[in-house]
Amino acid sequence: MAAPRPQRLSLELLAPARDADIGIEAVNHGADAVYIGGPGFGARDKAANPVSEIARLAKHAHRFNARVFVTLNTILRDDELEGARQLAWQLFEAGVDALIVQDMGLLELDLPPIQLHASTQTDIRTPEKARFLQDVGFSQMVLARELDLGQIRAIREQVQQATLEFFVHGALCVAYSGQCFISHAHTGRSANRGNCSQECRLPYTVTDAQGRVVAHDKHVLSLKDNDQSANLEALVDAGIRSFKIEGRYKDMATVKNVTAHYRTLLDALMERRPELAATSHGHCRYTFTPEPEQAFNRGGTDYFVNGRKTDIGAFDSPKHAGLPLGEIVRVGAADFDLDTGDALRVVNNGDALTWWDRQGELQGVPVNVATPLGGTRWRIEPNLSKGQAFGDLKDLFPGTALSRNRDMAWERLLARPSAERRIAVDLTLAQVEGGFELSLKDETGAKAAVRLPQAHEPARDAKQAEAQLKENLAKLGDTIFEARRVRLAMREPLFLPASKLNALRRDAVAALEAAREAAFERLPRATPVEPPVPYPDDTLTYLANVYNAKAAAFYARHGVKVVGAAYESHEELGEVPLMITKHCVRWSLSLCPKQAKGVTGVQGTVRAEPLTLQHGDDTLTLRFDCKPCEMHVVGAMRRNVLKALKAEPMTFYRTRPGANSGTNAGPNPA
Collapsing DSSP states into helix, strand and coil, what is residue 571? Predict the structure, then answer.
């Protein structure tokens, strides 16, 4: 007897969606799953969507067996829990496949039987934390971006049931996700509540312990963008099964482009390795060649996947410099000439050009009119803003290198329909008693058959009749199917009017769609391990983001004895780590003691002393924990933030060290 075929490993491409239309295009461009914000409680407060729109997206996605995950991943106040619970049920009834969750208080509520995924905000860096989340009922979890391949493999060894997810593209938060409080401290806008002010993208002056300037007005907390294009196979082998694209604020063109890029890469990988398969159905064709470099980016890095590197920072600017375009060869009174060096490189009206000035700052201007001068030269009339003079364009000289960060031809290309996603289907038209039967079987094995009562009329021209039948059967038009094979099972050449055949084909396609819909299965909710497994630690500080009584009860049920309140409760009023990062400013500036090892005359002279960051009136201290190779950005909450924001209500009780009872020892003050 032949050995059973090994089960294929399923890979998921998970794309972001700011709204349902972008989510639909993400599916059309190859996403196996889409994550999107609901009407509230999502960690991107400007990417909210009504439940009805999410239902529309889910209906489209499910046609391809693609999934829709909704972010319910802010930390919640006690008075928000009931609203979050009701929303969870509404989303379940709308067809949503999973909820992405940060707040453990949700697990204490009466949730629908919907799959739960652990948000990046849960900060999963260790096998112990990952195993705990699996054992309390999470079916999928996104690991910290800062992990290397060895750390991912170690987690995979401990986590066998839950799917491991990893960010492969997009913006990088400098802090461990969920471990950044600087936005709340400086502006009152909480990242863990979905309203980050992006303090990490500001310029800072860095000074050492002696007050010497190490870096002046540099964006030392701003990182390049994540790009794991070259590491997909290594990530698969390490245990990653879901490949997540960052960007719920991204526009449609970016989502189309980047999704198509990773779909192409994963398809090529699965073609080489037949043990791998996509979680959804169908194949995509594009009207464009994906170029992720065209999208907003700060330069690419694979971060720590292959170990620590010095070039992960976007210290000069957090903006999108664009792709090299050419060089200025003449500057006139109101225009300038550009040589692209490539006759195929076209400059368009509406393009946006950038260059670096002599102080290292990124400058830019849109193109009003681009006129070809012949060969590779173009005359550029800039589109100046109101009140701006041509002479105000800083350091625009002959020899200046120009880049382009908006290409109107590219944007127009992606503004049009740019992909088709089709499921392969085999069609068989058979002669049966009293008529014809059309059977369809798609690439997944789903089947449907419909019959047409019709007299059997002999064909006058057998070859022509057969050709016309096959041609008409293959015309699947704007359905989600495309003909892979068309077969005729006739005892004799027969004629069938095109109108009758077309109606038969439409009925068969509708029947196949209905069969696929009937076969669609919701993702199962994982069952928590009983009795409740202990949390890896028995003491939690503000870093655990516990913001409601239900979350405190959850951790108490799992053996935690001391539960600190979230930073947003305003209990931590002194200087505390506002960020914890794997990124190290000392390392990036070549000031790390580890870099000095073995260097004659330098070894032993470099110490991991604190550094100071200054931006305006804000002063932060960088402290370096060299054993885990981490940096703490230390500061205090601004007084104006404390005055402006009333502390949020906290009602849970915390056990304090040394308390006589083992349960309640006093309420958290508001």
Answer: coil
Q: Return the bridge partners of 425, or none.
A: 442, 483
| For residue 304, pLDDT beyond 90 | yes
- Which neighbouring-strand residues pair with 563? 540
- Please, how many CA atoms are within 13 Å of residue 622, restricted to the half-sphere of its CB? 29
Q: Are 442 and 481 in contact (CB under 8 A)?
A: yes
d(C-alpha 122, C-alpha 144), whole Å:
9
Q: C-alpha angle 541/546/550, rounded to 5°? A: 135
Tell me the torsion sign for CA atoms 395, 397, 399, 400: positive
* Residue 606 token pair: 């470099």
pLDDT digits (tens, 9 = 90+) for 254-288: 999 999 999 999 999 999 999 999 999 999 999 99
Please state the φ and ψ torsions of residue 204, each to the nearest 5 degrees: -130, 150
Gyration radius of the chain over CA positions: 29
Residue 657 CB neighbour total at 10 angstroms: 8
Joined tokens for residue 419:
């992909």
Say if CB 5 and CB 251 are below 8 A apart: no
pLDDT, tens digit, 9 for 90 and up, residues 584-639: 999 999 998 887 665 555 555 568 899 999 999 999 999 999 999 999 999 999 98
Three-state DSSP class for residue 648? coil
Residue type, 527: T
- 447: nearest Cα among 505, 509, 515, 503: 515
pLDDT in tens, 65-121: 999 999 999 999 999 999 999 999 999 999 999 999 999 999 999 999 999 999 999
Q: How far is the C-alpha of 66 from the C-alpha of 17, rounded, in Å? A: 14
CB 145 within 8 A of CB 175: no
- What is the identity of the amino acid at 258? V
3-state helix, strand, coil in the chain (%, to 5): 30, 30, 45
Cis amide leading into 398 (omega within 30) = no
Task: Look at the chain and count its residues.
Answer: 670
